[in-house]
Amino acid sequence: MKLCDLCGKSEATVKVSQLDKDGKVTEISICAECARQRGFTEVEKLKANVAEIITELKNRIDEGDSKLICQTCGLSYAEFKKQGRLGCADCYVSFHDQLVPLIRRIHDAVQHVGRTASGGRKQAQQKMNAHRLRQALSGAIQDEDYEKAAALRDQLKRTEEE
Amino acid sequence: MNQNDATVGRWLAANGPEADVVLSTRVRLARNVAEVPFTHRATPADHEQTIEVARWALADSGYMDSGKFLEGDELAEPQGQYLIERHLASPDFVASKAKRGFYVSNDETTSLMVNEEDHLRFQVLASGLDFPEAFTAAAALDEKLEGQLQYAFSPEFGFLTACPTNLGTGMRASVLVHLPALVITREIEKVLRGALHIGLAVRGLYGEGSETKGNFFQISNQKTVGQTEWEIIETIADISRQVITYERKAREYLMKKLRVEVEDKVFRSLGLLKGARVLSSDEAINLIAGLRLGVALGIVNEVNLEQVTRLMVLVRPANLQAMLGEKLSAAERDERRATFVRETLVHQ
Ligand SMILES: [Zn+2]
Ligand SMILES: [Zn+2]
Which residue among A75, A87, A106 places its CB closest to the CB of B165? Predict the structure, then answer.
């Protein structure tokens, strides 16, 4: 535990820059009380905000949390609470009712406004798949594996028609 | 961005709006590809596929013509550290064990990380206070990418991210400001508290948890849900304009009341930079920051803002070694850094 550079008594939790007599700026670590006396409280409070919410999550894992599981990726709500990260996009559906109050605490809002996704066209995925198939196809032709080549050609046709 | 390279990103040209106080503006967007588990839960095959998809999307939208894509060993150290020092990649990304991909434009204004905490995290950096430039370019890349792949999105929560703290717009907008006069006049907390009060985050130059060096501060949004991108940007820009005004007033005050002390600080910085034979990275940054104040105030005319700003990146360990084309021990670095800085300042 690092002690406060000002009072030397309590644990230092806030870092601030300080100017000494020679105009040199140094970093000091001070305790919450000394920070409060010098008007650093807001800095401390805000820094703690998101971290506090995450710690609180970690410390309050209920029995039901491990039974609540995302069907898509298999992550349990208990695991999310432990690591602070969701497993997949569907977790937002699977844990919807649990996440809404959490999101409100972090952002003071739940409903997204702003840019929206246009649905995307998956072109890159399709092109990439087609490219891979074409590569495999030329490999099969080189290997004179005509059965495989025919199958790949069909697959490629399907991909391009999609 | 290779050996013997003393070039730096265009955003370090110190020619943007309010460049005397604002170093740079950054807009970063987090996006995930639909139907693929988030990075930490995805399989190595998923990681590879996401990298491929990103590479194809970038190539098809023409981004590859003016940049390059790195992956695998190309991202091994010291390259990772080099990218962090240039503000192009995050420490988490560099430290990650997952297979990663990385795009950077030739002018280093646009970069994209594949398989960071989210599948895609891309950013645009602009010189000075310039959200129109940074956001427009980030939004353009966003649209190009979305023309090629499908994002994980919900009408309720917006763009879906691995951590709920990035949800919604998925946007972190930030400005990097140099506030030496506010630190000297002890007004800094009072001024930055204004930003904290309205829910913005303030931290030191080298990222979360690290100490502030050279009185550089980053102001960014914490909340990403419930406000449009431009509302978030306007909030940060408003606070930035206030901070700029306060910093300029404090500089004026210092020049009126404490001119000798300010000049002493500036010329001591210049003197040490020109004369030192051994310079650690931290000491160099602090001295360069002191010199930057002198240049911004017009006390020092022998170097310009761009030269000073460039130095801030080039003196950092991985960049110094890349520029010199040698792998050096810490002691060797401190010596070569001093030589480089001295030569830059004496013969420019
Ligand atoms: Zn104390
Ligand atoms: Zn899931």
Answer: A106
Q: Which ligand is nearest to the CA of A37?
A: 1
Prediction ipTM score = 0.88
For residue A8, the ligand closest to its alpha carbon is 1
User: Which chain B residue lies closest to A92 (C-alpha atoms)?
Assistant: B160
H-only helix segments in B258-315:
259-275, 281-296, 305-314
**C-alpha to C-alpha distance for B58 and B53, rounded to whole angstroms:** 9
What tokens does A13 get?
């939790």
Q: Determine the 3-state secondary structure of B294 from DSSP.
A: helix
Tell me the angle at which helices A123-142 and A146-161 cross, rounded to the nearest 10 degrees.
160
Residue-wise pLDDT tens digits, B87-129: 999 989 999 989 999 999 999 999 999 999 999 999 999 999 9
Q: Where are the beta strands (DSSP E) in B13-73?
A: 22-31, 67-71
Residue B63's identity, in one-letter code, is Y
Higher pLDDT, A38 or B56: B56
CA angle B94, B14, A15 (to 5 degrees): 55
Query: What are the tens digits of pLDDT across the range B130-186?
Result: 999 999 999 999 999 998 889 999 999 999 999 999 999 999 999 999 998 988 888
Complete DSSP assignment for B191-244: HHHHHHHTTEEEEETT-TTSPP-TTEEEEEE---SSS-HHHHHHHHHHHHHHHH
Contact A84 B153 (CB under 8 A): no
Residue A64, both tokens: 């039901």
Please, are residues B176 and B95 in contact by the beta-carbon 8 Å criterion?
no
Asked whether the predicted pLDDT for residue B54 surpasses 80, the reply is yes
Chain B residues 241-260 with a CB less than 8 Å from chain A: none
pTM of the model as a whole: 0.82
Alpha carbon distance B249, A30 (integer Å): 29
